[in-house]
Amino acid sequence: MSNQHLDNEKFKSGFISIIGRPNVGKSTFLNRVIGQKIAIMSDKPQTTRNKVQGVLTTNDSQMIFIDTPGIHKPKHKLGDFMMKIAMNSLKEIDMILFMINAEEGYGRGDEFILEKLHGVTTPVILVINKIDLIQPDTLLTIIDQYREKYNFAEIIPISALEGNNVDRLLETLKSYLPAGPQYYPADQVTDHPERFIVSELIREKALHLTREEIPHSIAVVIEKMSRRKDQDIIDIMAAIVVERDSQKGIVIGKQGSMLKEIGKRSRVDIENLLGSKVYLELWVKVQKDWRNKAFHLRDFGFTEDDY
């Protein structure tokens, strides 16, 4: 931890939890604010499985963002686990960003979240995302509708994708931050180890390329990650885990074409992240029904002990 600002009473810092229904744009927002890709993006709901912390440091403040899995009614053990993370993230933080998708409007999922927020004493800021996709009149209706449902500290419309109004949101967040220390070095943008982000980048490409054919039954396990001696090359060996043999065939593709494409696209992002050349070897293995088996969830990095 840097001591640079510990004696400076004007320095402000705090932990900000981003919550919302699945697929409202939380990861897009986090990546824009931090300025590089640390959270994976997909148009499939429930893409984010673990807390991802993004750290934004300026000369007078540090905001630590916690991106949670979308809050939803769980359907399996992995769902229970994701829900537990999301609700636990509301404890011991300084602010809550409740993000909604302007295009979807108010729904039962939002009702479920607002019920959970009642009794929370932390300031809750409503962020209406994806305003680039709606008419201005619709926005006013949405603001009025949500204002009736909950006493939000602030209501701020943004487009995380286009960047509209994001600076205003950050200024508002800063005004709510308490005085505090710099928790992380100024150049650190996440608390996740590189291995985790590498596995997430591979998972993102696999989800994106297999589209509707593969549901969320993909996990990625990094088996080996090491730098070659005296060379600027990192060797990465990773297994893409699916639940059924039929899914394995889809991920591998005709004559290995799908797996090759996943590898090619992943390598570009991983090289950008690590700043080195990467040799990436991927293979696919089947673990039947892994999302409902606690020992598999542990193997793939989903551990309740952390939360």
Give an overview in words.
With 307 residues, the chain is of the alpha/beta class. The protein folds into two domains: 12-176, Rossmann fold; 194-306, 2-Layer Sandwich (GMP Synthetase, Chain A, domain 3), CATH 3.30.300.20. The chain is 34% helix and 22% strand. It is built from nine helices and nine strands. The strands form two sheets. It has a six-stranded mixed β-sheet with strand order 2-3-1-4-5-6, sandwiched between helices. Strands 7-8-9 form a three-stranded mixed β-sheet. A hairpin with a 5-residue loop joins strand 7 and strand 8 (233-242). Helix 6 (194-210) packs antiparallel against helix 8. The protein is globular, with a radius of gyration of 20 Å. 34% of the residues are buried.
| Total beta strand runs | 9
**CATH architecture descriptor of the largest domain:** 3-Layer(aba) Sandwich
Order of helices and strands: EHEEHEHEHEHHEEHHEH
What is the count of distinct domains? 2
- The number of distinct helices, counting runs of at least 4 residues, comes to 9
Q: Would you tell me which CATH topology of the largest domain applies?
A: Rossmann fold
**Strand order in the sheet with the most strands:** 2-3-1-4-5-6
CATH class of the largest domain: Alpha Beta
Look at the structure and give the mean pLDDT. 79
Q: What's the Cα radius of gyration?
A: 20 Å
Helix content range: 25-40%
Global outline? globular
Structural class: alpha/beta
Any idea what the CATH superfamily of the largest domain is called? P-loop containing nucleotide triphosphate hydrolases
Poorly predicted regions: 1-8, 42-50, 303-307
The main β sheet shows up as: 6 strands, mixed
The span between the termini is: 22 Å
Strand fraction equals 15-25%
